[in-house]
Specification:
The protein contains 13 helices and 2 strands, in the order αααααααααααααββ. It is mostly helical and about 350 residues long. The chain has 2 domains: about 120 residues, no CATH class; about 180 residues, Arp2/3 complex 21 kDa subunit ARPC3 (Orthogonal Bundle), CATH 1.10.1760.
């Protein structure tokens, strides 16, 4: 049986949700309500329930609210042009489903039914309507999409941990006044979300503690976690991943937050002694010049952290689209640049079955 365009739309729309961080239906409903209220819609009119949002992603549906689809696409990170594209895709899919139904026409009466024209029989008792179950093919594809997202997520976190450890070992070997132990965290946070970045940060410092058989660097996991939260939420909540200037600002914010946490860790756990040779030498020079130890540690770490986070942020921005490509499946998909760090999947063209041409 040929897959309908509505089911194809639902799978494409589900992939958008997965690529946007696998937001729950309740979270999406809350974001849609907030979006509508920001447009000036009353609270009652703006309300949308979790089940209504779920129905937009449920295979087997034949009626989907196209306006709601556009709002969902917007809260999942799509711009106005792309949200309208999703709305039109939904309308086109439902129109095709309606055309198929009309083409099928009413079922032919059984042979000999002409004799039933004599007396009019009493109608049979109404049968309670049953909710249509999703087609097996669509259900298996949805499970496959979730499985693919899980596998790719695990691989991206593993890559992030490896990049963190490799960058840190390189800096130690060369003696640079940098850290480079958060490039992988930035990659994971931008690609998957802040809490995936937190997992990469904890795994990085945990593995270092195991391999080096020392806990001396473990408190700096707090610095890595701070960077993961700033990068992850900066892209998703503050929309700071849509232009080079915003990425620059986000990296500066990550540097400031990381420096504040690092200064507290250095002062409380190491009495002002930084385990990074370059940062320690710089803070020592500032103390010798008459600065207070707190100010010297903060200034030294701010200088090194600013360079470090700018490098990490822009390296992550360049790498993220290629890491997320497996989620999109390759052909017919566009990988965003500065305007969108997440994978955008182009809806399929009903005429060709291939991805529509990218919107410029």
């Amino acid at each position: 049986m040929q897959e309908s365009l509505v089911d194809r739309f639902v799978m494409d729309f589900q992939m958008l949700r997965l690529a946007a961080g696998d937001a729950s239906y309740a979270q999406i409903a809350q974001r849609v309500r907030r979006l509508r209220e920001e447009r000036g819609v009353s609270e009652a009119a703006a309300y949308v329930g979790r089940s209504t949002v779920y129905d937009a992603f449920r295979p087997g549906r034949r009626r989907i609210n196209a306006a709601l689809v556009a709002d969902i696409a917007t809260v999942l990170g799509e711009d106005a042009e792309r949200a309208e594209h999703w709305r039109e895709y939904c309308v086109r899919a439902q129109a095709e489903a309606g055309a198929r139904t009309e083409a099928a026409g009413p079922a032919a009466p059984p042979a000999g039914s002409e004799r039933s024209a004599d007396p009019i029989e009493a109608p049979a008792a109404p049968v309670p309507a049953q909710r249509a179950s999703p087609p097996p093919v669509a259900t298996s594809r949805r499970l496959s999409a979730h499985s693919s997202f899980l596998v790719v997520s695990i691989l991206i976190v593993a890559v992030g941990v490896a990049v963190n450890m490799g960058g840190s070992l390189f800096v130690r070997a060369v003696g640079l006044p940098l850290y480079l132990d958060m490039m992988g965290t930035a990659i994971v946070s931008l690609a998957l979300g802040p809490w995936y970045g937190v997992a990469a940060a904890i795994a990085t410092h945990g593995l270092f503690a195991v391999f080096e058989t020392t806990l001396v660097g473990l408190p700096f996991a707090l610095v890595n976690i701070a960077g993961a939260l700033v990068w992850g939420y900066g892209v998703r909540r503050w929309r700071l991943g849509r232009s080079p200037a915003r990425v620059l600002l986000l990296s500066v914010i990550a540097a400031v937050c990381s420096t504040l946490v690092a200064t507290a860790v250095i002062m409380f756990f190491f009495d002002g002694f930084s385990i990074n040779a370059g940062a320690h030498a710089l803070s020592g020079n500032l103390v010798a010049a008459g600065h207070q130890i707190w100010g010297a540690v903060f200034s030294a770490n701010m200088i090194t952290s600013l360079m470090d986070k700018l490098i990490s942020g822009f390296v992550a921005l360049a790498v993220v689209p290629y890491l997320l490509r497996p989620l999109a499946g390759g052909e017919g998909h566009r990988i965003g640049g500065f305007d969108n760090l997440l994978v955008r999947r182009e809806p399929l063209s009903p005429a060709t079955g291939r991805g529509a041409a990218p919107l410029r």
